[in-house]
Amino acid sequence: MAQAITNIDNKRDAKDKEPEAPPRGTTVAHPRPGVRNWALTVMGVGAILTMCYFGEQPLVVILVSVLIAFILDPVADLFTWMRLSRAPASGMAVLLMCAAIAGFIYLGVNQVSNLLEELPKHASEIRRDLAKITGKAQKIEALNPAQEKGSVKVRETPNWADLVTRGFGSLSEAVLAASFIPFLVFFMLTWQEHARKATMGLVAPENRRAAYVTIGMISAMIRNFMVGNLVIGLIMGGVSTIVFGFLHVPFFYFAGFLSGFLSLLPYLGVLLALLPPIFLAIGHLTATKVVWIVLTVFALHIISINVLYPKLLGGRLRLNPLTVTLALLIWGFLWGAAGLILAIPITAGMKIVFDHVEPLKPFGAWLGGEQPPNGDAH
Questions:
Q1: Using DSSP, how many helices (H) and how many strands (E) does the chain show?
Q2: Cα dihedral sign for 200, 201, 202, 204?
Q3: Per-residue pLDDT tens for 321-333?
Q4: What angle do CA 152, 153, 159 make, to 5 degrees?
């Protein structure tokens, strides 16, 4: 009897495991694994990029405020250690930042005004040098198609202010947007503990440890990125100032630090760093000294990229050159000049998130130049 029951159960299990055949004449669609997921991923990425493109103004203001808040956090902690509560300590840190920016703008305006006063004295020399360059350029005849008589072509000259304030409309709108930054920084410093705990509450309990580690790594990366760039800019600016002073470049202290910090911009920085010293050197220096200026700027840029950046920032960013180039291209297209500045920290933060989310680890490995932190190769 028991044997019969066992046989019946086995037949029933076999019948349950046996797949049901579709009715005759029915077309069976073979599933394509992953196609739907990839389609949703592409749509999601497109939606995010669209939001970033049309929401440039608030997003740039928020991200810049986050970067500044990470820099000022140790200053606020110092005032807190000096027996101040968190709100006054944060307010003091923000006031110091505003005072430093105001002082920098004041010195910059004074230097520019002094430069404008000196330019008329050397206007004839500058015009003579420019005439030589223009005369040589006119000797090179470009092959242009024949133009109709009487036709006039009007070409709009590039406006650098439009490039810098792209996405912010007019300059007044850019100033209005920038006025929110001190207040955002203040509230980020005073409410950081609440924001951190509330963010942890949004994550499932089993993932909170990974989220906490991820946020900590992003915080350390951003702080290291900002402080590292500041140190590198000061080093390059100091060396440039010494060299430009030795070459007798007018306003060498202004041109040196401006050139040093402009050189921090990826790729385009080395070209922009040449403009201040060469512009100031027109009519004052010989061609040999101008060549020394060019060699100095290029040498400092190469040293910073190959020595200073790997030493101060390489361990935090862990991005390969292809990723950096694509990030600059994409974020520069979306946000203009602001995108070129924010591209590296945004992409480095994305890589940290990808490295700590299991389904996204292959993307983190693609962005980086080495294996993920757990040592798994994908």
A1: 19, 0
A2: positive
A3: 788 888 888 888 8
A4: 140
Taking the model in full, what pTM does it have?
Answer: 0.67
CA 160 vs CA 177, 193, 337: distances in Å: 19, 40, 10
Using the predicted structure, report yes or no on whether residue 343 has a pLDDT greater than 70.
yes
In tens, the pLDDT along 263-277 reads 887 667 888 888 888
Identity of the residue numbered 165: T
Q: Buried b / exposed e across 344-359, counting CB within 10 Å, b at 16+?
A: bbbbbbbbbbbbbeee
Neighbours of 249 (CB within 10 A): 26
- Give the Cα separation of 48 and 46 in Å (integer): 5
Nearest 5°: phi and psi at 284? -115, -35
What radius of gyration do the chain's Cα atoms show?
30
Question: Within 13 A of 59's CA, how many CA atoms are on the CB side?
Answer: 18
The tokens describing 204, both together, are 């499932």
Q: Where are the domains of the chain?
A: 55-114+168-202
Type of residue found at 188: M
**Alpha carbons 247 and 292: distance in angstroms, whole number:** 8
Q: Which residue intervals of 139-266 are DSSP H helices?
A: 160-164, 171-178, 180-190, 192-201, 208-246, 252-262
Residue 2 banded pLDDT, cuts 50, 70, 90 = very low
As a whole number of angstroms, the distance between CA 352 and CA 319 comes to 10
Give the Cα separation of 361 and 34 in Å (integer). Answer: 17
Phi, psi values for residue 368, rounded to 5° = -95, 180
DSSP annotation of 140 reads S
Q: How far is CA 292 from CA 240, 276, 286, in A?
A: 11, 14, 10
Give the CA angle between residues 356, 362, 364 to the nearest 5°.
55
